[in-house]
Design goal:
The structure is a homodimer.
Chain A (H helix, E strand, L loop, with lengths): L5 H15 L4 H8 L3 E5 L4 E3 L7 E7 L2 E6 L5 E7 L4 E2 L2 H6 L6 E4 L3 E7 H10 L1 H27 L2 H11 L3 H4 L2 H8 L3 H7 L2
Antiparallel strand pairs in A: 1-8, 2-7, 3-6, 3-8, 4-5, 4-7
Chain B binds a DNA duplex through helix 9.
Chain lengths: 195, 195
Amino acid sequence: MHAYSISSMSELLRHHIRKVTSLTEEELAAVLSRFSRRSYRKHQSLIQVGQPVLHVYFVASGLLKLVYADEAGRQHLLSFAMEDWWESDFQAYFTRRPATLSLTCLEDTVVYCLTLDDYQALCHEVPGMALFFLQKANTGYISAQQRLLSLFTTQAAQRYQQLLDSYPTLGQRVSKTQLAAYLGVSRETLSRLSK
Amino acid sequence: MHAYSISSMSELLRHHIRKVTSLTEEELAAVLSRFSRRSYRKHQSLIQVGQPVLHVYFVASGLLKLVYADEAGRQHLLSFAMEDWWESDFQAYFTRRPATLSLTCLEDTVVYCLTLDDYQALCHEVPGMALFFLQKANTGYISAQQRLLSLFTTQAAQRYQQLLDSYPTLGQRVSKTQLAAYLGVSRETLSRLSK
DNA sequence: CGCGCGATTGAGTAATTTCAAATCTAGTGG
DNA sequence: CCACTAGATTTGAAATTACTCAATCGCGCG
């Protein structure tokens, strides 16, 4: 089922942090000890609308969707959270308010969880981690802006192509309904564009 | 012309940083010394497409637009940078590559400039500043996501209303053509919606 | 007065949505 | 192996929304 054993998945987070920071082994161990590992199954939700958002999640394996459901019940997909991704309802997480977004498994998924208290403690106690999260936040901001631009400048058909080009596995892993919700078009429209 | 004297504008940056961080006066002085102050006039550009992006800018007064111009020459407005805002072509800034965006004055504007070297030095030498920029980056990321959602869920007419509600002065300060470029509709469409 | 810029209006066109129906597909139980 | 069902996908047709292009309007300023 899973391609990685439990120990090598813990290695995944370790390597992910090492790539960007220069922490001592001691610091790294202290950092990792603040995370807890959890497994979820397809269709389970890590974050539900109205509930408190206790964690930010590092995705070790699997696939999640971050969704806003509007009054009419339409689903709008803010992101696919893949392996190596950090995801949460950040607005709710940082303000300790109830979630407005939901985070739900599209596949069986393993994550590492970090509470806000631990996040803040890490940022204050391990300078390298503040820089680490700063870099993540900056790249997240930049890609959100680029997604905005692609909505402004690019036809849905090309956005679809670019999405498949950027994440070649995605076409196999999720339904077209999900892809449409990410691209910002109806599933019928996406279907017609596929030609 | 300007509502603030030079010295009180420097206070603006000082207070802006103090609001979020807990730096000593010494640290704060060291931080401020890395910034340089510059004034620009309406229609001047701080960042031009193809040119290196040497600074991130803190807007002390005035108003800027961050724009992407597509192949057809259409302008897409990523943000209005107002007083207290931090702005740049962050992608280009952090990667030291040529700008793909332009940053242009919609009014006479005073900014404080910070080079990437100084930004990185501040983040490493003054832990409070890494946390400061982390907080800015996180809120920037969150608002970019919410703008995405508003594009997905909300009709252009309501987005227009919400923009005016959020920034009441904006309707007076910029042309409707600029507002349309921010909302992601043509100026003709915006004109028709204004009823 | 007349120029120039921004805003508006009109008409035709293109893209997308909605709602409904038909089709396809994978998995289940007989 | 087949029939059956639930979910996903596709297709059709009408209605909506926004776009483009062109013409017109309104206004401030030299």
